[in-house]
Write a structure and sequence with these properties.
The first copy, chain A, is mainly alpha-helical. Helix content of chain A is about 65%, strand content about 5%. In chain A, helix 1 crosses helix 4, helix 2 crosses helix 3 and helix 6 packs antiparallel against helix 7. Chain A binds a DNA duplex through helix 2 and helix 3.
Chain lengths: ~170, ~170
DNA sequence: CAGACCATGTAAGGTGTTACATGATTAT
DNA sequence: ATAATCATGTAACACCTTACATGGTCTG
């Protein structure tokens, strides 16, 4: 467990709410965690096998079509808590969007401006998508509601910031 | 060239300003691009070899200690322009910081609050670091100055947003 | 001449993506 | 029946990190 490996912790986190199969978890990734930690089917099944081998989760039931339901073990919960409290979040995730900005100077100013206005538009659109998501969710006072709402607020503020920044930058280019 | 591969483009981008050796590029990554696209020494030398084999850069001079100076070729510049204009930036980079937020509910509320106030502090500190960087740079009107300043502004606004968001979230928990 | 810095490379292993592959069960 | 969905897995390949390895050149 050297670095990163957050897929592991994402799986442990989802299983901390309730037991689930790989297929269930895949669906929940697609809906709730897609914006924060996308994962593919391939990767998930492999990771679940490793987590079970390491004793952090266990097969608690088997169903039709070879379905295996996994449950978080005490060791798994301990590892999840450890990750949350004792390990530092990554400082700066890589950003190819921002990397491009560094090199916009190789383009004619007009095309550089088009890149920035394109960013404005995608930010505005994503903001609206998140607003729609916010309206569609039935927010209760369960764990996922409380913290999911906080994560969603981050997305809203981020996209608002991005749109304003891109507008500022486009104007700055003249 | 299937997906991502932005290290390639970062190298092409830096070489579009002036020729440089692997060692030079490593230093420039450490200073200017560290916050946006960190890269290790190992990875860079390997990537430079591949780029040269693909004809996107070429060895333009050799110096002491086996130093090889690379220069961007016409093909390399075309590829850089193509990446800037024809390929879409990644929509959502993974965020382990935000992933943790989803699962803060497994901690006692006090510890969840501590995580959020910790984020406030790191954002505030990074904001100050960037302000210091801003003051230390001699901003001219060359390409890197214009677009580097825009990228830095993004960092400033991002950290301001993060700090406010974390404060809002911590208060929301009560 | 010793230490700092310049300069490049290989190897092993983890993580992530895409494509391929297989088959059971349920609903129409 | 047949199509959609449920359900899991393997293989190949790209990317990234860490550690290991080697040696030349310059400065005090």
């Amino acid at each position: 467990m050297v670095r990163g490996m957050s897929l592991r912790h994402a799986l442990l986190g989802l299983l901390s709410e309730r037991p689930a199969s790989g297929y269930d978890l895949l669906k929940r990734f697609e809906t709730s965690l897609a914006n924060v930690w996308p994962a593919t089917q391939s990767q998930m099944y492999g990771e679940l096998t490793k987590l079970a081998a390491a004793g952090l989760i266990s097969v608690s039931a088997e169903g039709p079509r070879g379905r295996k339901e996994y449950t978080l073990t005490d060791e798994g919960l301990a590892e999840l808590r450890h990750w949350l409290t004792e390990t530092a979040p990554q400082r700066n995730p890589r950003s190819d969007t921002l990397l491009r900005v560094f090199f916009l100077g190789v383009l004619p100013r007009e095309q550089a401006g088009a890149y920035l206005t394109g960013l404005m538009e995608t930010s505005a659109k994503e903001y609206e998508d998140l607003r729609a998501l916010e309206r569609s969710v039935d927010w209760g006072d369960d764990r996922l509601s409380v913290y999911g709402r906080i994560a969603l607020e981050y997305g809203l503020r981020l996209n608002e910031m991005k749109r304003e920044w891109a507008a500022w930058a486009a104007e700055r280019l003249g």
